[in-house]
Amino acid sequence: MKAKRALVGVLFLNLALWFSMGYAFASTIAGRVSDPDGTPISGAQIIAQGPESQFSKTVVTQEDGSFSLDPLPAGVYTLTVRRLGFAELVQQNVPVGENGDSVRLNLRLRSNREQAVAVGVEEINPNIFVVKLDTNEIIRQLSTRGANTQLVTEFRSQENSFGALYGYPLRRVELARTGTLLRNFHGSLYETHQNSAWNARSFFTVGGLPPSRRNDYGAAVGGPLVQEKLFTEFAWSQSRDSGAVNGNIQVPTAEERIPRSADPATNALMARLLSAYPSQLPNLPHVSTRQLNTNAPRDLRSTAFSTRFDYRPRPADQFAVEQRFYDTTEEPFELVIGQNPVTFLRPQSYHLTQTHTFSPRTVSRLGLNYDRLAIFLDVTDRYKNLFAPLGLTAVPEITFGRNGDLTSLGPGPNYPRRRIENRFHVAPEITHVRGNHALSVGGLLSRYQINDLQSENSRGVFDYTRNFGRSSVENFLLGRASSFKINLGDFYRGFRSWEQAAYFQDRFRLRPNLTLSLGLRYERMTAPVEVNHLTSIAYRTDANNLSPQFGFAWNPRGGKIAIRGGYGVSFGALFPLLYQRARFNPPAVKVISVDNNPSLVNPLQGYDLSSGGIARSGLNLLSPDLVVPYSHLYTLSIERELPAGLFFRVGYMGSRTMKLPWDVITNRAVPVTGIPTTTATVNERRPDPRYLEIDTVTNGATAYYDSLNVSVEKRLSRTMTWSVRYIFSKILDTGDTTFADIGTGRHKSMEPYNIVGDLKGPSQFDTPQSLTVTYRYQLPGFGGPGLLAHALGGWRLYGTYSYRTGVPYMLHTGSDAPGFGNVDGVGQDRPHVLNPSILGKGINHPDTSPSILRREYFDANIPAGGRGNIGFDTFRLDGTNNLNFAVEREFALRGGADQTPALQFRSEFFNFLNHPQFDSYSPHVANEIFGKITNTANRGRIIQFLLRLRF
Hints:
There is one protein chain. The chain contains 9 helices and 40 strands. It is mainly beta. Strand 27 and strand 28 (about 645-665) form a beta hairpin.
């Protein structure tokens, strides 16, 4: 409390000093414009517009992406950045002080849909399906490629930067930005095309690439409806990705295509399940006995359009209205029938922003947002009808563990899934410049409405593992599952919650060579309420979240050296995926687990399904003390301008993220005298006979990040710019949780009361070393009027090379049965390691992985209720080693001042050297496929062409 009072006192003292300052004249806004990967963008137009349009200045970025706007009078500015092929960027409320003040801005432009910039990462293999909901895509990107962190050089209380360290600020609210009104109409038409005929095969592909095509096309037009008053812009695009997806699955051999149960009814169901696998037999026996490389059709269609209006009724006021709509439908590939869900996704948004200029030094902004997301995911009709010949409608999930001996049947236990999200935001802000101080005060009020059907385990899940003295495949053919789980009840819920924030920011020049910034942000997040009172949330409103921010920029001798540093606190969120688990509790929902040899025909035989008849259920609890996690982020960097247009930067960046959620699983089965320790007696051996497994989410995990960032950039060159960036880092956590996850991820602790000791280790996206090299080269012009000189001159070459070490990965026993697990009813046990020399090695190639992960190097026979001695995530996957390349030219069709109309041609080569990045190995010792790599994380080389007409 004393610290908070001291901080508030300092801020009020600074505010008093600010009001005592006089007025003078200001100086410069300078910086650099780059793409998302840091490649400089030349030729970008930057328009600085002062209050009430009384002052306007336009510059164009240099070859190295740098720009400088000077001299500028003191005031609050709006910067508009435009470049062909990139989305327009508007940076509002940029305050410029007096007495030679210099504001530095590093701006990043996002690519338009018509231009995929050659960045240093591959396209993820399309045979890896990712559900576009919650933070799934972010986690998949990070766990495949690792973290590609960006050095933070400025802390702003106006924004919540939780996750920004990794390039994913999860809680930022994007407002419509009022921009500069154009005087003339402009537009563009474009088409991009990919075709499998030009692409290269991936590592495991058998035969030629099957036909597939991707077409992305669209148009944009914008201009004044009323000069100096009303401007409009409309953009429309469509994308169609169709054809075959090549992938790898584990299928039964010829001898494993016939059911082996003694029960005819079980055999009939087994025959239908076996029919879900393709009739083809394994064709890659050198990879694994059951490996089949095959193809399946996929059809992905999407439409997007946006409309924007800028209206200036009077010089002091401007309104911006934006509407965006996106609709996509995916008929997924099914290498195995039912492998992935059908997806219907429809996000849309409506944003309104009003800015008012009280004076050249005082500007207010009011933003109103409405964002809506509708998503529907369902089991494919082919899988729904799998049991139709037998007169049955519900088809359960069949699992063999992660990367099991057979590919699992079904899209996952969470489908069907329907969600409607409505988000409302109100964001006022006022910015004022006085003397050397630039002050911003504002807030945010948000309302969240989530209506969601989350049918976890509603169709039931049969898990087949090594048990009963047999392999998982043998148990499957016999119909002998190790467990059956199902949830029964009403799964539809409607949750409502509020978020509020208020902030204060002051940036001031203390000395001619020293600029400081101070800020404070307050956030309050209410506990969600279920509108029909079907589910109660145990935790309370989190209302004590204060985020101080501090930063400085120091030029020691007024020369070419700058030292920057800062510290800030950012609060995360308790995401819907976390608190919605509370629905899976009795009496509304029963969570049933059958561990005593469940029957495939009637797994709930012997259970009373009448109201209140089921006495035992699992529990999914939220701790009443659950609060929002938060991060401390701190940086220190030194920058130096060198001769020959070189720019050097070295910096340290670190963070500590506290109170991340994790799972605490209790009421596990324990050894009991007189009761056999088998999977069939798990429920009989639980300490609390009222319940099955009790899963509680609480705060407990901590994440650590430390990095050294070194970069060198070549600037100020007519023909070539380049940059080299190297990061040496370490990311640890104490519970297999991330800034984007909820602690319910890949791992569970082997014991409930020492989670930190059991799970502390490298984060799932820890990448100790990262190297990124980018370049842009302008071919010199060729003299003479000849056709050859015209054809060869004016071409631009782009390239990005990326190297990153592989991320950590797990190793489990693969069964909870005696001889392979501790038989406590909770999977993901880890074995004893008998050959410690293999620890920490990279499992990065299918030819070498089986020789490193040899079954005799591990002992899976851990004691009942005990644990193995191998650590958490002790091996590493294959890393990124990728080169992307692009060549483009723009042809002016008429010699106008702005080079319009113009025709742009661009050819892009992703994974130019066709280097495979191998996916994860099979981590389960009990599986026959243990230690083998069966897929790639990236695609083979892809060639894409772009043609764009600008007018």
